[in-house]
Write a structure and sequence with these properties.
Elements (H helix, E strand, L loop, with lengths): L13 H12 L3 E2 H8 L3 H13 L3 E8 L2 E8 L1 H20 L3
Length: 99
């Protein structure tokens, strides 16, 4: 088994890594909160969210608060497992190459 085998290419981009990091420690997060935390544009965030949704790593929940739309995201069980495996692989890679 190689050092890079469990590195997940889907998490290579810093925005996708940020989205999954936030969703790994929060039950759900709104689109606006993700945008604010990651300091990205609507279009940029939406494209990375779409990639994670396509992989079934996150799910979207659209509701209304009054008349305003409220879009929230959650990490799926598959997404949490894949993200955890990715982080563990990074830790192993770092430890293996220490000294």
């Amino acid at each position: 088994m190689g050092l890079l085998d469990n590195i997940n290419k889907l998490f290579d981009h810093r925005i996708r890594l940020g989205i999954m990091s936030i969703l790994a420690v929060n039950e759900e997060v709104s689109f606006n909160r993700l945008k604010e935390l990651l300091d990205v544009t609507d279009g940029n965030l939406a494209s990375h969210i779409k990639a994670l949704e396509k992989a079934e790593y996150i799910v979207v929940e659209k509701t209304f608060i009054g008349r305003k739309p409220n879009t929230r995201y959650k990490a799926t069980r598959i997404g949490k497992k894949a993200f955890s495996a990715h982080i563990n692989a990074l830790e192993k890679l770092i430890k293996k190459n220490k000294n």
